[in-house]
Amino acid sequence: MIKKIGLLSFAPFFAIFATACGDQEVDVENYPEEPVTFYVNYSSGGNTDVVYRQFADVAEEYLGEEIIIENVDGGGGTVGVSELANEEPDGYTMGNLSMAPLTVSPHNQQVPYSTDDFSYVGGWGLQMYGLVAPADAPYDDLDDFVEYARENPGMSFSDPAPGGLNGLAVDLLDREENGELQIESVPYDGGGESTSAVLGGHVDFTSNNPSAVVSGLDSGDLKLIASMSDVRFEDEPDVPTAEEQGYDVNVTSWFGIGGPEGLPEEIIETWEEVIQQTLDDPEFQESAESLDTPLEWMPGDEYEELIDENYELYGEIISDEN
């Protein structure tokens, strides 16, 4: 039992085509004409923040305007998503639409939005998860970890996105053990803080993304017990996935980009082109590899369908757990 504690474009024959967005009109032919604010719904220094800052540094070269990263964190990523849903669909406020706040959090907490409140540009990269412990922890694989957890009830882990996929990975491991692991989930504000909690000895382990723990793994202060996703960590190729270790646990998410519902199609097409150019850029490919972020492209309609499918899937899992 896991215990939760605390908390593009077309041009018509005339020169300028304007699209109404609320009380504003957007010149979609000349978009963008000013910097674009981009909501990252997790704290500075965590996995999502680090990846998107690298992304923005390259993408703005193709967009032709500055991309200003604004951390709108809290609520396991739900605050930023909620704020994005309430913005004007004019293309000047875009944001991260990753899986957890849309597919998991609504089943764990009340949120003021639904998956229909957004315009999806597409998914562009995979988010992986791993169970990471101090280097001197008395377990090196999941079998040893499970045995230790059974013998030492009350273990705790730092959760960088409470109510999201990080905690779900641990929940699924506990489910494999018939709900008999007595582990406490301790909420933290993002990957950086949750990793520091492990390094500082405040918790026993973390369920986290590669970029949040890579420094500790490289320094030898941390060790990876298992990738909880369907592929191994690039920087830890000798550490098997949970499935390879005999546990039916596979949690993989996506980085996704979108805006409020009603985003003009021309702006969506502009961002589609910018994202694909960024994914093909050698500089960003190198950055993504260093952050253990596999790059893939999924168009917006397919990504929205995946969001809806996972919303149903995770809802069933969480309902069973409760």
TrEMBL record:
Signal among keywords: yes
Read off the Pfam families from this record. Answer: TctC
InterPro entries per UniProt: BUG (IPR005064), Bug_dom1 (IPR042100)
Q: Which UniProt keywords apply?
A: Signal
Q: Which residues form the signal peptide?
A: 1-20
The family database entries (PROSITE patterns) matched by this protein are listed as: PROKAR_LIPOPROTEIN (PS51257)
UniProt xrefs under SUPFAM superfamilies: Periplasmic binding protein-like II
Q: Does the keyword Chloroplast apply?
A: no
Family per UniProt? Belongs to the UPF0065 (bug) family.
Name the record gives this protein: Tripartite tricarboxylate transporter substrate binding protein
Cite the source lineage: Bacteria, Bacillati, Bacillota, Bacilli, Bacillales
